[in-house]
Specification:
Helix 2 (39-46) packs across helix 3. The chain has helices at 13-26, 39-46, 50-62, 82-101, 105-119, and strands spanning 66-68, 74-76. It is built from five helices and two strands; from the N terminus they run αααββαα. The N and C termini lie far apart (34 Å). The protein is mostly helical and 120 residues long. The longest helix is centred in the C-terminal third of the chain and has 20 residues, at 82-101. Strand 1 (66-68) and strand 2 form a beta hairpin. Strands 1-2 form a two-stranded antiparallel ribbon.
Length: 120
């Protein structure tokens, strides 16, 4: 996921970043468990001060959109009812495994569909 800042909008950069993360979580481009870039890396990428990105992350955490896990990083939080949270966590873990194995998305989805049909 790439973020961009448009200085000409008049909206503070931290708020632009915060809104982009919220939008990406809402529309599924950032799933529960997704790791966000480090504050320093994102600040460098966007040409922003570290404190600007840190402010956006702090507000996102206060809003319950992300959670900081110390040195492990900042991650998108699971949302919704407990069943949805468990589903999001399982999907995130599966996506991590698929990425480590370099499996194409269509093959990964087909594998899940086969298992679900076999159990159905």
């Amino acid at each position: 996921m790439r973020f961009t800042i448009a200085p000409e909008t008049g909206t503070p950069p931290y708020e632009q970043l915060r809104m982009q993360v919220v939008g990406a979580v809402r529309d599924g481009r950032l799933a529960a468990g997704a790791k966000l870039p480090t504050v320093r890396a994102l600040a460098d990428e966007l040409g922003l001060a570290v404190n600007t990105v840190a402010k956006a992350y702090k507000e996102l955490e206060a809003d319950g959109v992300v959670e900081g896990r110390g040195r492990n990083g900042t991650f998108v939080r699971a949302t919704g009812d407990p069943v949805e949270q468990a589903l999001q966590a399982a999907a995130s873990a599966y996506a991590d495994a698929v990425t480590r194995l370099s499996v194409p998305t269509d093959a990964a989805v087909a594998a899940v569909e086969r298992v679900l049909r076999a159990r159905g």
